[in-house]
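Hello K.,

You asked for the raw outputs rather than the summary table, so here they are, unedited. I folded two proteins back to back in the same session to keep the settings identical. This is the first:
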Amino acid sequence: MEIPKIPTDEQERLFQLRSAAILDTLPEERFDRVTRMARRLFGVPIALVSLVDENRQWFKSCFGLDVSETSRDISFCGHAILEKGTFVIEDTLKDERFFDNPLVTNEPHIRFYAGQPLRPLNGTAVGTLCIIDRAPREFSAEDQQMLVDLAQMIEREIIAVQLSILDELTRISNRRGFLTLARHSLEMCKRQQFPATLIFFDLDKFKEINDTYGHSEGDRALKIFAEQIAEAFRTSDIFARLGGDEFVVLITNASNAVTQELVSRFVGNLQTRCAKLGLPYSIQLSYGAVAYDVLKHATVEDMLQEADAAMYEHKTIKKKK
């Protein structure tokens, strides 16, 4: 059996997947109608919308299987996301990569697989629309085009989700997207007794950048700030632009030392980037941090309010110096 390779853009791919906030969500008719259509059009017993996470493939829509996810190591879709076009295996028993795969030798006894990569907003493959048969079959060019057409319907639905929860300027999560992801993350921390820390960032003297250099330069500063957040923090951390010049990061399952290291790396990377770009200004910031307390923070909003207050205290102290 051949284990799927890791894409060269894996970190960006995982960011795009998780920022869409559809992993581990309930079934939705807008996705299910397409998988039903695929199963009927091709006459196959199994049709899936499979999203390839770091260590698993999870099924947003699933017809014909009784499981909601499988390991990425044995997944066919892990191979499919590496392809530019449709990934087709007409007979798994004749393919050295798959003949001894557990999904072939055991349930669901895959003999035929066709998967079309799903590439929403930025063109990064987050998963596939795939069809599966328990018997080998041929797959014509016309068949491939039909699968492509159906996959584009799924892509449009994912893009609609992304646009509703992504900040239009910076392309990271907006407030709505952050709250959705953070609630889920804090529930996990509560169950697993993981620590979590919320960092609230605010740009200092941002109005001066807009007034002196224009709003287009202000937008550029915000985009640089967002890019450095995405680069400095981990893929498991949740970050967003709340609005204006306010940003937030939720760091989970990390010690205080690791959290401080991540913040310091971000601040250092930001200043280095500004220097390399030769900006006529420096992007300065204030921030406040609050550790998750189950007894104290009933909601994500409670943490935001406390971290916001800590940030303003930090900003006030800096102004007095």
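The second followed immediately with the same parameters:
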Amino acid sequence: MGSLKTLKLKLLKVGLNTCYQICYYVNRGRQQQITFATMRSTSLTDNLQAVYQTFERANTPNLKVSCYHYDHSFKSKLGFLWASLRALNTLSRSELFIVDDYFFPLYAINKQPQNKVVQLWHAVGTLKKFGLSLPGAEKSILKPHTNYDWVFINSEKNRSAYEQAFEIDSSRVLVTGAPMLDALLAQSPQTLVGPKCLLYSPTYRPGSDGEQQVLAYVQDFVTASQALTSDWEIYISLHPYLSLPTLNLPKNYHIFQDAQQVKALMPSMALFITDYSSLSLNFSYFERPILLLTPDYQDYLKKTGFYVDYYQAIGAPHFDAATQLVQFINQELSSLDLSYVSALKASTFAHQDRQNSQRVYDYLSHIIKSS
């Protein structure tokens, strides 16, 4: 990291912490809000949405929502500082501050103990590394994923990964099941009629050239998939941190950037294609084919890495090139043994009582009453 960038980050850290401390002392004694906050979308989604709705059904007062969509575009960067300052003021007034992903301003401050922070990570399991497990994360000027008081996770087998990613004591990592899975468990696979539908969801790549890399893979997939011999409707979901591109696509191609739309589409999809997205775990519920398109596997393994032996953990057929994947769909998909999908479902859905959100709510309510 260059010396100028280091200086900027140090100054930003001091500035954000100063802002937070001033707000805290101005608001001292008024920490009564329960805030649900995200910087990955303009509205609450997935785990945050599920738990917020549970609090709302219980007629909980003083609920607050703080959303900002940061996508690395120039316009987004301009609004990011103001969004960070507003978020810190909101945090200073909050008894509980609940996030679902990386939340930059939170890592710049010396957090006051009266402001409790909860992490409801947006992914179901632990496949690719994240947080402080990533290479070089420990050396960051603003050390990521600090200041969490509690972390809620889907299953016991994920505990060690979260402890490592967030450097948090095991007693602060609570296994409740992922709240977002409650809604998924209420769904049934839709009967497939008409054109078959597939969903392609490449994941985020870090670094200055990460966005261009993902878009190049998307273009390769679009080009190759036009050789599909059956009638397909093709949906392409991009990570929320990417800028949504304008592409000239055939009429049966649909590109979007909306976590809610992904969940709505899943029951009607005949096939899910990804590289390293944890959405494969969600999709396994419907026991339909999952394929992996991983042209940069060795590079991704070196730069990001996994908590598991990735190919073995998913068990899905994997391909280095989109042309190979399309050939497989045309010739072998119909006879594919789906036992690997059934095994993935069994390991992912440890809690099937649709009470995951309620368990999180009950514990957070206990925290509020005890404070």
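The longest strand covers residues 63-69.

Happy to rerun anything if the numbers look odd on your end.

Regards,
P.
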